[in-house]
TrEMBL record:
InterPro entries on file: GH, GH13_cat_dom, GlgX_Isoamylase_N_E_set, Glyco_hydro_13_N, Glyco_hydro_b, Ig-like_fold, Ig_E-set, ISOA1-3-like_C
Keywords: Chloroplast, Plastid, Transit peptide
Gene3D superfamilies: Glycosidases, Golgi alpha-mannosidase II, Immunoglobulins
Organism whose genome encodes this protein: Camelina sativa
Protein's UniProt name: Isoamylase 1, chloroplastic-like
Pfam families per the UniProt record, alphabetical: Alpha-amylase (PF00128), CBM_48 (PF02922), ISOA1-3_C (PF21156)
Gene symbol of the encoding locus: LOC104782453
SMART domains xref list: Aamy (SM00642)
Domain of life: Eukaryota
Length: 784
């Protein structure tokens, strides 16, 4: 399997040998959670050793010393506050035989104690497969969780154990440790967690904020990590590494020209999931990226400011502030969601929510209870199960309606196209379908969960972006079920552009397809903006490392350099590593500019990775999932150094793209607008050895633009298209040093710089150095 087509969420795992999970999670300390009240029921242990029927026994009336208790309602799921201040609790658990709600004060949580337990009566508190209860009282600093009892039989897919206190899958916030990367009591990586109880005093003032609804064709996406963006000391802000920190630094993105940020996972996750000492860097490895979700409704609490971490509602508000401040600047917010697996791993993993609530429903299981591992992370979310797909839709709706996010990028999105456990047509469609004999995990042409999302009256109007592959070998770039609205991370764009720009033969035609928005992939039912174009992303080399390293250097990850992609299509420009000759460093800067030009002049939606605008380096590490340090931190000091160099170039290219009517078309360009050229006008060279691609594009604002790429090691003299009454003038030449790589009207000594080209342009020609690209603009001849 070509791992460059796979997500960050599994590149660090052991190589996938089977569809079932085959790795062992790090040893996880078992919380010693003391209970004040023991629920009276048939325990999982007794059930395993007897023939007792699955009937819960309730020996005392439903009552509480602290709360008024009544039956409650089966919907909506989760904890819902009512107008009178009471809270309705509702949770789906089809295969459990008893349920207990555990109420835990914040102080008791720190001491591993339960404040009160209320066992539910199945005759009053259960409707169908839903447990529910209504409580009214003083919920200040109160949290909750559940115990479920039932059959403990992994071979049948059940993991019920009433000793576990479980998170509500619909919990709006999850509380555990206070500080990112710091161990819990007794150095526990998995201390007890609990869910926030909502209250009426959590109203947020949106100040009239609404979704921006920017046309997708006009987006410039910036993939970023909340903690990494401001954690470095050079950010010089009060709360580095937080939602507030990002909000404070949004003006940098506005200056760059970004109008959409794609946040790497912000759902609650445990960064200590594989906590271990790093002997190479002298710190500890953690789950920095966050592709291992614990709660899909809860924002990552430890991305909030320190003063709010004990109050989950404030953490929610800080995420809302980030969204509101982004919208004020005309920037949309897209979330990277990991709805393909959870942090519970395989059968050796922790049990904190979904597995203990109803394992056989939430996970894709084989007939003997094994976990299918299409995610490469131990389990696979059972996305097309009726209950799970409704959960997914509810979750996405919540983030759109309550948190005002503008869209989603679906990590390993192809998993959502696989059939669920116990798949059958009657279960999914309500009727038999002839020939429907699909096994678990088989890709289906009309996946119910994608159908539901695509036709949902709320979700259909937001940005939907699929990472159209998974760890099981399913690769759907250009073929993802789309309903005319889904976009895709275009991994083929990345691979082709990398190879053409570094001068690999045989890619001139494929590169031209990329420049046109990949019509070979998306023509027929979709638009150019359905292609999310990128050269670099969080997994893989940064742009600076792409031109500095031929080989990855992932030793600091602790996996003997076996993790991460081996085929990066990178080129070090002649010398490996940061220490190189002046001529090599000049060529590297030129190549970085070439990559950025290719991204900005291509049809489709460009996406750049955080830090690439100043040339951030990770030292050749192409899989920095486990590093909470300088490798993943945005360097604000380096950005300031690049203000007059590469950052300036990126800012001006993004501005140019925004000004051009012809860059970011709603439809694929045709011959009426686009002409291909070679070193001679209208004579393109699509041969296997061609390393030259040029085109001109009619533009209603700029009249016409001419773009050329010379990725040969030889310079060439280009003949330009003849336009009577007009002359071509240089705007970008990546072979020139800054600031002459981008000639703007306000550039000092602009006239002197233009004179250097005059004798060539008067002859309708232009000299191009090796490994360079140019953008020329059409200007009227004086007096015309």
């Amino acid at each position: 399997m070509d791992a460059i087509k796979c997500s960050s969420s599994f590149l660090h795992r052991t190589k996938l040998n089977t569809l079932f999970s085959n790795y062992t999670l790090p040893k996880i300390p078992t919380p010693n959670f003391k209970r004040i009240f023991r629920p009276i029921s048939i325990s999982a242990k007794d059930r395993r050793s007897s023939e007792a029927e699955n009937v819960a026994v309730v020996e005392k009336p439903l009552k509480s010393e602290r709360f008024f208790v009544s039956d409650g309602l089966p919907s909506p799921f989760g904890a819902t506050v009512r107008a009178d201040g009471g809270v309705n609790f509702s949770v789906y658990s089809a295969n459990s035989v008893s349920a207990t709600i555990c109420l835990i004060s914040l102080s008791d949580l720190r001491q591993n104690k339960v404040t009160e337990e209320i066992q539910l009566d199945p005759s009053r508190n259960r409707t169908g497969h839903v447990w529910h209860v209504f409580l009214k009282g003083n919920f200040k600093d109160m949290l909750y969780g559940y115990r479920f009892d039932g059959k403990f039989s992994p071979e049948d897919g059940h993991y019920y154990d009433s000793s576990n206190i479980l998170l509500d899958p619909y919990a709006k916030a999850i509380i555990s440790r206070d500080e990112f990367g710091v161990l819990g009591p007794d150095e526990n990586c998995w201390p007890q967690m609990a869910c926030m109880v909502p209250t009426l005093d959590e109203e947020f003032d949106w100040e009239g904020d609404m979704h921006l609804k920017l046309p997708q064709k006009d987006l410039v996406i910036y993939e970023m990590h909340v903690r990494g963006f401001t954690r470095h000391e050079s950010s010089k802000i009060e709360f580095p590494g937080t939602y507030q920190g990002v909000a404070e630094k949004l003006d940098h993105l506005k200056e760059l020209g970004i109008n959409c940020i794609e946040l790497m996972p912000c759902h609650e996750f445990n960064e200590l999931e594989y906590y271990s000492y790093n002997t190479i860097l002298g710190d500890h490895r953690v789950n920095f990226w966050g592709y291992s979700t614990m709660g899909f409704f809860s924002p990552m609490i430890r991305y909030s400011s320190p003063s709010s971490r004990n109050f989950a509602g404030r953490a929610i508000n800080e995420f809302k502030i980030l969204v509101k401040e982004a919208h004020k600047r005309g920037i949309e917010v897209i979330m990277d969601v990991v709805l393909n697996h959870t942090a519970e791993g395989n059968e050796k993993g922790p049990i904190f929510s979904f597995r203990g609530v109803d394992n056989s429903v939430y996970y894709m299981l084989a007939p003997k209870g094994e976990f299918y591992n299409y995610s490469g992370c131990g389990n696979t979310f059972n996305c097309n199960h009726p209950v799970v797909r409704q959960f997914i839709v509810d979750c996405l709706r919540y983030w759109v309606t309550e948190m005002h996010v503008d869209g989603f990028r679906f990590d390993l999105g192809s998993i959502m196209s696989r059939s669920s456990s116990l798949w059958d047509a009657t279960n999914v469609y309500g009727a038999d379908v002839e020939g429907d004999l699909l096994t678990t995990g088989t890709p289906v042409c009309c996946p119910p969960v994608i159908d539901m999302i695509s036709n949902d009256p709320i979700l259909r109007g937001v940005k939907l972006i699929a990472e159209a592959w998974d760890a099981g070998g399913l690769y759907q770039v250009g073929m993802f079920p789309h309903w005319g609205i889904w976009s895709e991370w275009n991994g083929k764009f990345r691979d082709v552009v990398r190879q053409f720009i570094k001068g690999t033969d045989g890619f001139s035609g494929a590169f031209a397809e990329c420049l046109c928005g990949s019509p070979n992939l998306y023509q027929g039912g979709r638009k150019p903006w359905n292609s999310i174009n990128f050269v670099c992303a969080h997994d893989g080399f940064t742009l600076g490392d792409l031109v500095t390293y031929n080989n990855k250097d992932n030793l600091a990850n602790g996996e003997e350099n076996n993790d991460g992609e081996n085929h990066n299509y990178s080129w070090n420009c002649g010398e490996e590593g940061d220490f190189a000759s002046t001529s090599v460093k000049r060529l590297r800067k030129r190549q970085m500019r070439n990559f950025f030009v290719s991204l900005m002049v291509s049809q489709g939606v460009p996406m750049i990775y955080m830090g690439d605008e100043y040339g951030h380096t990770k030292g050749g590490n192409n899989n920095t999932y486990c590093h909470d340090n300088y490798l993943n931190y945005f360097r604000w000091d380096k950005k300031e150094e690049a203000d007059s160099d590469f950052f300036r170039f990126c800012r001006l290219l993004i501005k140019f793209r925004d000004e051009c009517e012809s860059l970011g078309l709603n439809d694929f360009p045709t011959a009426k607008r686009l002409q291909w050229h070679g070193v001679a006008p209208e004579v393109p060279d699509w041969s296997e050895i061609s390393r030259f691609v040029a085109f001109s594009l009619v533009d209603s604002v700029k009249r016409e633009i001419y773009v050329a790429f010379n990725t040969s090691h030889l310079a060439t003299l280009v003949s330009l298209p003849n336009r009577p009454g007009y002359r071509w003038e240089p705007f970008v030449d990546t072979s020139k040093p800054s600031p002459y790589d981008c000639i703007t009207p306000d550039l000092p000594e602009r006239e002197a710089a233009m004179k250097q080209y005059r004798h060539f342009l008067d002859a309708n020609m232009y000299p191009m150095l090796s490994y360079s690209s140019i953008i020329l603009l059409l200007s009227p001849v004086d007096g015309q």
